[in-house]
Amino acid sequence: MQTLTHYETELTTECTCTYLDDNDNEQPSYDCYGCFDDAKEWLNENLTEWQNANGYDDDTLIRIEADGLGWRRLSGFIDCRVSEIAQALSINGDYRIIFKFSLDFKTLSAVRYSHDEPTGTGKMVISKSPFDECAYCREIDNCQTVNGFAACTVCYEMQVN
After folding, report:
1. Cβ 41 vs Cβ 22: under 8 Å
2. Do 44 and 138 contact (CB within 8 A), yes or no?
3. Contacts of 127 (CB under 8 A, 6+ apart)
4. How far is CA 154 from CA 20, 61, 62, 158, in A?
5. What is the C-alpha to C-alpha distance for residues 114 and 160, in angstroms, rounded to an integer?
6. To 5 degrees, how large is the angle CA 90–CA 96–CA 98?
7. Residue 96 parent element (H or E)
8. How far from the centroid of its chain's Cα atoms is residue 53's Cα?
9. What's residue 111's pLDDT?
10. N or C: which end of the chain has fewer CB within 10 A?
11. Phi and psi of 134, rounded to 5°?
12. SS3 content of the chain, % helix, strand, coil (to 5)
């Protein structure tokens, strides 16, 4: 008997649609029926559980710390909104991201696989960002991310323009 240790959600750019043949065997489909959108919905359901367990909302700033990125196996971090997690981890190309949620949904990590990461990145740890205020003027409300740092609306406009 296996013991459940975590929940997994997979987001992939590869079509996973299937159909049942005449013998009721599952076969890969020649057509896609929206499997990527379905996977994003499942991810969003688990992200909602994670948010509730941690007291986060869609606008909470989080930090994604990663190593083993790309063919050069680089390390780094990015601060983004909870609602931007999938976008922050995706790349311009084919990929597969495995999100792992603890059973109590308190912790979240991910591993990405791609052409340049065939064995996967290192474990990406996702947690609350230490930058819960504007890095430029220390304003707390309406922060966005600019160049990996939190910025309020006024400072964001100054940094972007």
Report:
1. no
2. no
3. 62, 63, 65, 107, 108
4. 55, 17, 21, 6
5. 31
6. 95
7. strand 95-102
8. 17
9. 93
10. N
11. -60, 130
12. 20, 35, 40
Counts of helices then strands in the chain (DSSP H, E): 3, 10
pLDDT at position 71 is: 85
CB 46 within 8 A of CB 9: yes
- Amino acid identity at 154: V
The predicted structure's pLDDT at residue 141: 55
- DSSP result, 2-46: PPP-EEEEEEESS---EEE-TTS-EEE-SS--SHHHHHHHHHHHH
Q: Is residue 116's pLDDT more than 70?
A: yes
CB-based contacts of 160: which residues, under 8 Å, 6+ apart? 146
Question: What average pLDDT does the chain have?
Answer: 83
For residue 150, the model assigns a pLDDT of 58
